[in-house]
Structure formats: C-alpha cells, structure tokens
Amino acid sequence: MQQAGTLEQGVKKAGEILDAGLFWRGNLAHAVKRRDFKGTIWGVLSLSLLLFLYVWQHMQVVKLSYEVQGLKTEKQQLTNEYYYLKYKMYDVNSLTRVEKTAREQLGMVTPRTDQIVILDDSSIRYPRWFSFWSRTVSKADKP
C-alpha cells in the first residue's frame, strides 16, 4: 500500500515538473494564463548560451584559419627571400665577380711570371698533436 502511495506521489511530482515548462510543450495560452514563465525563461537563456558558445567557437576557428593562412603566406615570402639572398651572395662571392671588381675598380692586373715566387712546401710544420696522431695511425697500420 505504501508503494502505491509513493508511486502516485512520484507521478504527481513528475506531472508538476512537466507542467513547469508548458511553453516548451506548445501550450502557450495555458502558460500565459498561469503566468508560468520561469521554466521558459531558463530554457531560453540556456538555449541562448549554447547558441552563443557555438557561434563564438565557430568564429574563433575562422579567425585562426585566417591567421594560419597569413602565416603560410609569410613563410613562403620569407623562403623566397632567403633563396634570392643566397643566390645574390653566391653571385657576389663568385671568383669571376671578384676578378672583375679587382680589375675594373681596383686596377689590379695578372702578375707576370717573374713576379711569382714558389715556396718549398717541405718546411711546413704541423702541430704536435698531428704528428702524434700520424705516428699512432702508422703503427696501427703495420701488422
């Protein structure tokens, strides 16, 4: 018997909860007569909040997409500038350009054979560590 009473109370409570949002169920005239706008206002506010969050999220995605596209364009421009400057550096440092600058701007000429001095390379001295290393390698090579 007590279970039947609690069941009836549960059904009654569920009916009251459903009647709290009469506007959402399509019974606008009845909601206006009872002045039952509390559930309706909360529903509209929550729906508005969800809609605002969805639109804000979408706008952030669009904004970030534009930023990414701008950065990709800037990267491409900087890459092009890098390769152009690298080309210019090779052009400026090329031997033909250096020789042309030396002849035209500095007035240099090719030396005559009597002006060339050839040095003996047998007197080249190596650092002490290099001689130690070469001796070690030569000993390791001998069986």
What does this structure look like?
This protein has 143 residues and is mostly helical. The chain has a domain at 56-108. 74% of the residues lie in helices and 0% in strands. The protein has five helices and no strands. It is elongated, with a radius of gyration of 45 Å. 1% of the residues are buried. The mean pLDDT is 79.
From the alpha carbons, calculate the radius of gyration and give it in angstroms: 45 Å
Uncertain stretches: none
Helix share, percent = over 70%
Overall form? elongated
Distinct helical segment count: 5
Beta-strand portion reads: under 5%
Largest sheet: none
Distance from first to last alpha carbon: 108 Å
Helix/strand/pairing category:
mainly alpha
Rounded mean pLDDT is 79
Task: Please provide the count of β strands.
Answer: 0
Order of helices and strands: HHHHH
Task: Describe what is shown at a glance.
With 143 residues, this protein is mainly alpha-helical.
What is this structure's SSE topology?
Layout: H1 2-20, H2 28-34, H3 38-93, H4 95-104, H5 128-141
List keywords for this structure.
143 residues, mainly alpha, 5 helices
